Amino acid sequence: MTGIEFSISATDGAARRGRLTLAHGTVETPAFMPVGTAGTVKAMTPEGVAATGAEIILGNTYHLMLRPGAGRLATLGGLHQFMNWPKPILTDSGGYQVFSLAGRRTLSENGVLFRSHLDGAEHNLTPERSIEIQRLIGSDIAMVLDECTGWPVTEDEARTSMELSMRWAARSKEAYEPRAGYGLFGIVQGSVFPNLRRESAETLQKTGFDGYAVGGLAVGEGQAQMFDVLDFTVPHLPADRPHYLMGVGKPADIVGAVARGIDMFDCVLPTRSGRTAQAFVTGGTLNLRNARHADDMSPLDATCDCPVCAQYGRAYLHHLIKAGEMLAGMLLTTHNLHYYQSLMKNLRDAIAGGTLAEFRTKFDREQQAGPEDGHHGDH
Amino acid sequence: MTGIEFSISATDGAARRGRLTLAHGTVETPAFMPVGTAGTVKAMTPEGVAATGAEIILGNTYHLMLRPGAGRLATLGGLHQFMNWPKPILTDSGGYQVFSLAGRRTLSENGVLFRSHLDGAEHNLTPERSIEIQRLIGSDIAMVLDECTGWPVTEDEARTSMELSMRWAARSKEAYEPRAGYGLFGIVQGSVFPNLRRESAETLQKTGFDGYAVGGLAVGEGQAQMFDVLDFTVPHLPADRPHYLMGVGKPADIVGAVARGIDMFDCVLPTRSGRTAQAFVTGGTLNLRNARHADDMSPLDATCDCPVCAQYGRAYLHHLIKAGEMLAGMLLTTHNLHYYQSLMKNLRDAIAGGTLAEFRTKFDREQQAGPEDGHHGDH
Lengths: 379, 379
Description:
- Chain A is α/β, with parallel strands linked by helices.
- In chain A, 42% of the residues lie in helices and 18% in strands.
- Chain A is built from 14 helices and 16 strands.
- Chain A starts with a strand and ends in a 10-residue tail after the last helix.
């Protein structure tokens, strides 16, 4: 496939410094994609998201297909125009959310029949329908529909699930109409089993995709096992294509995954934390709900160059949280997305400069020195 | 008193085009003050508020004295620094909110004893304490504590209430320490009774204040009666001092009050409406929750030059509201504050140009032509 360009300008160990060229712009990698579930990165304007340094966001097919609806989005000019985000968008397949609808969905070879959480209406999500919806949304990068393998899982169950995902990936590719600037990513499954991951990676490459995601992680397996999976999976991905670790993660997860050859990430952590009083700072997180911030006019992070740290003290953010004010979520989300984008920029610079090992040593030391309120929060 | 400068550059009938010079900047009048109850204009950054054209905001003494607390605010550098709003701030006296605490407050000659709605703690709000709190907050303009006269009310009750407010006003003046750039406003009471309003205005002038507010309106008396009160009250206010109509109001209220010689306004309507799906547009309001907006990519108001109208369609705003997204309130509040500030600018230009009558004719015609969803909402 030749939909999207991916060029690698430097490597440092397994880590890669690259650039994606998509229909709506370029994306420097390794890249973090803020999550814009329902056509908005929560609590942020699109200008605010771009100002943090984000060059691509993720949209959720499940939410968008139900509301405002894929057909309506297409009629209104696509998601970019609808939400006033002119830069690249990646959409997931919708599968992850559908599989979360316990008791409201039925899996078959054909796809997943489910009832909407909004109005109970029945929908059928197949590989072909997911591709069609993502085309109507207008996303630069579409993902294949896959089955979300459970956790914990036996090897037999993981194989059955992976093999279904591989058949769906082939159908997705078949249904996808290539266009310049647009791409389709396959998703490697196989849980924590090296032979399954390798088989999945090889199967996908025979079909051929614009990029390759590692799916089924960040489901409770823990960071050590996640890194193990990357160690034995990434080497089987084509080196000249982007590698995307879905739904990850904490800053330390990202640093470790970049060092293992991952180029793209998405996670709700910086945005969700921003709405629940958590700030990402050097070495960990701050819980701004804590009363000890009530008289502290120092910024969230003295080393941060974001507009929130330049203009507001912890005491004010604490006050806004106690008062239940929307501005608390707005400012903390802004800061957290800045933190994540700054982390990505520092990782890119370190790879380009061949200093990733030093960067990781410094990062780990900061994590151990610790933040005041604890280490980076869980998902 | 000589705390603040007020210069009038033009008049048109009773309407005045002026400029207030305060410690934190100048304010072109007639001016609308967005309400920043708890140290934030809800759903807005301070930069966003300033970008709408607002030059002064209102802070609520009641909320701020309870949280974060007046002493803390003073220690942290005052409200301007705390909330990152370097422009002028006017604070109310706290009385209005305290009098709303039915069953939780006791009125005496000395002041009002009340229990906090947050933790039940007992507080004593006296004229002197209100002045002290407003000094700790650091507001450019402080208001005297007054009793909120009920509605409906007999003339005897209104007189008793007004006379108490006049005694409190004198005590407030006594407690107030004049400083260059800072001012204290008296508040005319007397409900709908011309003789009481005149007596109140004359009593206040004998004491002498930097500005004069008309209080006790927008309490259910209706627009016609409010305009009647202004007709027989404003002529008794000193012509060379700013006139402030508290808690008003709808766009048509403001237009009529400006024509009657009012220079300053505050109201929660544009901000509260912004969080409840209402947009102020030429001729009336739109309810963006209405399904008929779901496929409409036109802006809220084709004649509006605000960033929301430049970048977003009604369909998107409708979608955000249905999805319960914070961005809905952020964008609608931005638009509504732009609408109000644009209205004030147009009024100022009309007074300066001697064309206020034409402006009012056009405004009334637009109101009659009507918006799609109804006339301007009630308070």
